[in-house]
Amino acid sequence: MESPIVSPSLLSADYGNLQRDIELINESEADWLHLDIMDGVFVPNITFGQPVLKMVRKHLKKDMDVHLMIVQPEKFLNDFKEIGVDRITVHYETCVHIHRTIYEIKKAGMKAGVALNPGTPVCMLRDIIKDLDMVLIMTVNPGFGGQDFIMHSLDKIKETKALIEETGSHALIQMDGGANKETAPLLVNAGVDVLVAGSYVFKSADPKATIHELKALRKC
Fold first, then answer.
1. How confident is the model over 97-123, as pLDDT tens digits?
2. Which of 50, 97, 124, 202 is least buried, going by the fewest C-beta atoms within 10 A?
3. Is 176 considered catalytic here?
4. Catalytic residue, candidates 36, 63, 133, 193
């Protein structure tokens, strides 16, 4: 197995020193930078919007991996494309016309992902799985960083992997929430391709070394 893709989450960075933390990501082995955009409606928190993303894009040398925890995400797709976002993940729970939204993301030239909350079953993706570039399994409830990992998520990841193999989809599996020294190996063994890590990376004594450790993981 190749090294997992590592996408540190800006949600846990130092907002007073964002350029410094972005440069840290540039200098590290991280593959992408994960940006959780929250609207205070779909989730009980508000993070950042287009002006911050423009600043990030100006300094970031890695791919922008944007996770939209917002209602009506389709209204903002062109804005994100103009900023230079590489990947957009929307929540299944927020999209009335999920297939159309996926199509619009791809039409704009970005990779398309769909996220599932802990209470949303994997079977809801069956009719769209072959259209996806990525499936994001929420391993915590969305809305806040630093939450405890939901262990049942490992079964959900295995189920997603089986669906991808059954249908011939090429979608990557991403997780978001609670990644650390104990859970990251379990996630990789369950079939995760993309590790999102916020507090575990940015709150560590040596973020670059922590990212290196995540990159070194292999499926047993």
1. 999 999 999 999 999 999 999 999 999
2. 97
3. yes
4. 36
